[in-house]
């Protein structure tokens, strides 16, 4: 039985590497130039974004489209999904073309326009102002484009609030976090850094009644990162979607998806109640991620950025847990629920696709694991 499962997994991997998402033959991974959009590890008191991409732009979309992503996960295709909700996106630096890029993306894929004029989109700085914004950064700019476009793709009727921190200093990102949570019930964050002693003293940024916080788990495998490790956020890990030609085959753990046991945070009561693997492995500490969605840049999403990234502009195929986090935030907004540890770990609340194969430094197993958490959200309910 084990041998048959191993052979099946090998076949899946070979198919995934042989075909692109549109049926074209792709180069082998060693020949591609995918890299971290915000390279290098974060230093003390700083964070980096968790996006991966190739610097080569295209004149037409490459990567998964909104309809394709929704098909794989059986998400709602209604253009009114998310109505009455607001999703805040917190990132560092500025993307001057954010609104224009969002609407080029929307027009290309038949999504409703999301503009300042119609009240759907708003961009503010970390102090809430609209008259001045931080300086532009190409890497964080591509991150911003992905975050707002894919939050809108999954919840096309939800309002989008983009809050731009002055830079990637945690003090400024946390100030932006406060601004975001004061104006939106769903707050998506695609950034983080190394854990540090004393982090528990600032968990209060995320302990707010009725507000759902989402953080990408990281894109370097183990160990756990912060703020993903905070017990008051939903830590979102990453998977790989495997295709044969244009046909979806399976979902496996992404090798670079973040996860691991926190060095400082204690598991929530809901997570601790799982017992078994996470608590044996983590000894009562917070285990990450909680959940996952597509993050592998090889099965990445189409993103439009008309500002200069590596001297180019246009369409990119982008991944990283930076992609899975805003999709989870948007899917939660569509459901209209407060997404916290108690909700995620109540088995009756969310239909999960358990991820059995893959490894990010920890193996994907049956049930909860440090590779993909509880798994991926599938289905249009709740």
Overall description:
There is one protein chain. The protein contains nine helices and 19 strands. It is α/β, with parallel strands linked by helices and 382 residues long. Helix 3 crosses helix 4 (138-154) and helix 4 (138-154) runs parallel beside helix 8 (321-335). The radius of gyration is 19 Å and the shape is globular. Residues 1-31 have low confidence and may be disordered.
Topology:
Elements lengths: L1 H17 L16 E2 L11 E2 L2 E2 L12 H8 L12 E7 L5 H11 L12 E5 L12 H17 L4 E7 L4 H12 L4 E4 L1 E4 L17 E5 L8 E2 L7 E11 L2 E7 L6 E7 L2 H4 L3 H7 L2 E4 L2 E4 L6 E9 L2 E8 L1 H15 L5 H4 L7 E2 L22 E2 L5
Helix pairs in contact: 3-4, 4-8
Determine the strand fraction and express it as a percent band: 15-25%
Largest sheet: 8 strands, mixed
Count the E strands.
Answer: 19
CA distance, first residue to last residue: 35 Å
Q: Count of helices?
A: 9
Overall 3D form: globular
Please name the defining characteristics of this protein.
single chain, 382 residues, alpha/beta, 8-stranded mixed β-sheet, 4-stranded antiparallel β-sheet, 9 helices, disordered N terminus
Quick structural gist:
Helices cover 25% and strands 25% of the residues.
């Amino acid at each position: 039985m084990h041998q048959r499962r191993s052979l099946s997994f090998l076949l899946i991997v070979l198919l995934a590497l042989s075909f692109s998402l549109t049926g074209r033959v792709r180069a082998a991974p060693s020949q591609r130039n995918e890299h971290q959009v915000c390279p290098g590890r974060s230093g003390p008191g700083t964070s980096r974004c968790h996006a991966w991409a190739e610097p080569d732009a295209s004149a037409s979309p490459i990567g998964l489209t909104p309809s394709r992503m929704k098909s794989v996960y059986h998400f709602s295709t209604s253009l009114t999904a998310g109505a009455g909700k607001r999703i805040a996106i917190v990132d560092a630096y500025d993307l001057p073309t954010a609104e224009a890029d969002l609407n080029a993306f929307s027009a290309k894929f038949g999504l409703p326009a999301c503009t300042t004029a119609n009240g759907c989109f708003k961009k503010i700085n970390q102090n809430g102002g609209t008259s001045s914004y931080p300086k532009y950064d190409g890497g964080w700019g591509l991150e911003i484009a992905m975050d707002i476009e894919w939050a809108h793709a999954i919840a096309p009727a939800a309002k989008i609030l983009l809050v731009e921190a002055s830079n990637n200093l945690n003090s400024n990102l946390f100030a932006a976090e406060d601004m975001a949570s004061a104006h939106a019930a769903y707050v998506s964050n695609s950034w983080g850094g190394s854990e540090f002693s004393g982090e528990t003293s600032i968990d209060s940024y995320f302990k707010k009644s009725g507000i759902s916080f989402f953080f990408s788990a990281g894109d370097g495998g183990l160990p756990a990162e912060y703020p993903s490790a905070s017990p008051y956020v939903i830590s979102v890990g990453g998977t790989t979607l495997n295709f044969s030609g244009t046909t979806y085959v399976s979902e496996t753990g992404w090798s670079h998806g973040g996860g691991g046991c926190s060095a400082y945070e204690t598991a929530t009561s809901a997570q601790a109640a799982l017992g078994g693997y996470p608590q044996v492995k983590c000894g009562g500490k917070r285990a990450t991620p909680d959940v996952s969605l597509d993050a592998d840049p090889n099965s990445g999403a189409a993103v439009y950025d008309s500002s200069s990234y590596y001297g180019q502009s246009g369409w990119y195929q982008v991944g990283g847990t930076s992609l899975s986090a805003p999709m989870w935030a948007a899917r939660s907004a569509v459901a209209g629920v407060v997404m916290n540890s108690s909700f995620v770990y109540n088995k009756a609340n969310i239909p999960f696709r358990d991820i059995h194969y893959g490894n990010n430094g920890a193996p994907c197993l049956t049930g909860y694991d440090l590779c993909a958490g509880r798994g991926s959200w599938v289905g249009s309910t709740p």
